[in-house]
Structure prediction request, 209 residues.
Amino acid sequence: MRRMTVGDHAEARDALAADWGRFLAAVLPDAQWLPVPNLGEAVVDFAQAWALDGLILSGGEDIGVTPVRDDTERQLLAWARQHGHPVLGVCRGLQLLHTEQGGGLVATTGHVATRHPVQMLTPTMPGLAVPREVNSFHRWALSIDPVNGAECLVRDVDGYPEAVRYPALGALGIMWHPERETAPHSQDRALVRHWFGHENDGPSNERHS
Prediction:
């Protein structure tokens, strides 16, 4: 979750956009989920106590802004890799996956609060079947150069990666925010359900275009 302070309150707070609850209820109604607090090294005990078997690294502040969040997510990523649990990184989450594998980030403009087309390069996964338009809320793009066995699945029109699979981490990252759509896109629903092993159709409220 994002680490932040609110108004005049001095204490740090962990926060998650309410969009995630709506999105997960629509695309994974057959799964249980909970927000994970920023606990640093202690988060591994938390994950084990709750028997977590998958991980979403959500968006938020840039890497380096909140050290306890960076440490928490790196601890969780190592734990998930050790136990073979799937990991999905969204926006900042993809940036974390990329930098953990030795990749770099590139400052970009024109990608905040907008939409743009993307091209699927390797349509081998449900949800990555045809070109589409996605939302965009990031200031940092991934370096274009290949990184440590990573497989770029989607690029934007400038050639920057927008979806990448990291086999060494058991992780997939996407740069757009599926939870911020007014209703889940059918491709995002298919992608998330496939990645977390819930491919049989369940109740949904999805957008097809």
